[in-house]
Amino acid sequence: MSSPDFSRLSINTATTKSLTLQEAVRVYADAGLQHIGVWRDRVAEAGLDNAVRLVREAGLEVSSLCRGGFLTAADADGQQRALADNTAAIREAAALGTRELIMVVGGLPAASALIGGPAVDPSVPGAKDVAAARRRVADRLAELVPVAQQYGVRLVLEPLHPMYAADRAVLSTLGQALDLAEPFPSDTVGVVVDTFHVWWDPALEASIARAGSEDRLASYQVCDFNLPIAADALLSRGYMGDGFVDFATIGRWVAQTGYVGPVEVEIFNQAIWDSPGADVVGTVKSRWAQHVLPHL
Amino acid sequence: MSSPDFSRLSINTATTKSLTLQEAVRVYADAGLQHIGVWRDRVAEAGLDNAVRLVREAGLEVSSLCRGGFLTAADADGQQRALADNTAAIREAAALGTRELIMVVGGLPAASALIGGPAVDPSVPGAKDVAAARRRVADRLAELVPVAQQYGVRLVLEPLHPMYAADRAVLSTLGQALDLAEPFPSDTVGVVVDTFHVWWDPALEASIARAGSEDRLASYQVCDFNLPIAADALLSRGYMGDGFVDFATIGRWVAQTGYVGPVEVEIFNQAIWDSPGADVVGTVKSRWAQHVLPHL
Fold first, then answer.
1. Is residue A1 scored above 90 in pLDDT?
2. Would the CB atoms of B176 and A129 count as touching at under 8 Å?
3. All domains of chain B, ordered by start, with CATH?
4. Is the CB of residue A225 less than 8 Å from the CB of residue A239?
5. Looking at the predicted complex, does its ipTM rise above 0.90?
6. Is Isomerase included in the keywords of this UniProt record (chains A, B) (predicted)?
């Protein structure tokens, strides 16, 4: 029996959180992978020049940089900080040789303190106004598009599961992401399908087809939706097969768009983070071969 | 200063979980309320005839009965049980004098055991097929419509927050609920707007307007969306003002439909359940006067 084809498998460094970038590139390359998804915390630790060298020397291609975004600040200072941080992220993506910068757009001002942002009085007008927060995302995106174009980077909008709508992303569906992308060229603003976030969406089939026909499908990310929801809701992601995502169906819809790029496994899960990195990569490969690869 | 108008406020017995139905009707009536939302566990405890008498003697009107549903079983036995249980719920609603039977449609077979249903092998074909589960909901609904018509009861479809899509409701948006209702008369199949479940939906304004124009808005339920998500995700609901829902905006959209019925407060929250029932009713009244009433 021939070995499964791992040529499209990418693992995001967030999946092997205990590994430094130097360790991660070695473990991934030793496992025969050709791609790596990079989280910015690992780049910051290693230093950008060193990170670029480490990835290149391991012979890996960067499938995406995670993440830019957090564009919903209502105050001028917060908006300036967001533009500066996203400009830095765009430069990092370009240096790492990936076109795809994943964007988590940010939540409501009233929830900002929950994710380390400034405390905003929830009774201030607009602090819970989700429509106004979405308009600010569109405004910031328009300002970032020229910067992204200058560096040849694509801003990849990530709809997050609605359980994160208050604190992390007022962008909740793929259709909404495509609407937000519409004013901009498809090589500068794209979208990502992350199974955890969008599997429940009744419009998912149509929205994936639309992402394909509008040439905006920049990344396919896979992991499972586990229950019960973890104490830290961000950590409810699981190995493919451990939860409730129908990878056969979603994989088929993605394949029908003609998407042939890397498929990235990004899992935040405390039990997985507590396991040795090489074991995690081994399990990811086996689950990927079983649940994802047959449907691509 | 005149007292706030509580004539449209209804409290669901699930909000005061420690109270028997006999205690709840007394506490609500003493607080000057005119409506009560009834959860079926309280009806079962009291017995239906007794429940009807208790509510009537307290001078309360039943704004809704919660709940019917769980229509997604893929096996014949499970489907028969669902029809029998929903027929019983329809009869109870009619006996209690409410037209509105709230329907939580059910989740994936693979998650059935998580909510006390039969264990289904998750590798069985279709066990995680959300589209197939939705088709079964439509099939069961068609079977229940004649029963509901016979009793003069409306089946009120409740979209649940997508965090419950796997285990409780494959119906996640108000637009999807309206699509599901479309083949049936508006006096037999309606929809409910529950702020906790739908506040994040980018199509919410349009869907509420559609519910109004199609004459299907059967109930408006209010409570807040708290963060962090509770250890038992079902218990993340909070008093209005404690979380991230913009009641002014959603209330205005509901009011614009012409909805003038009861507004029901239904909160599952361990800290609230651990408080004395009369205190809970007092807090509900004050939060309702502050956050909900001004926008109706």
1. no
2. no
3. 39-49+64-271 (3.20.20.150)
4. no
5. yes
6. yes
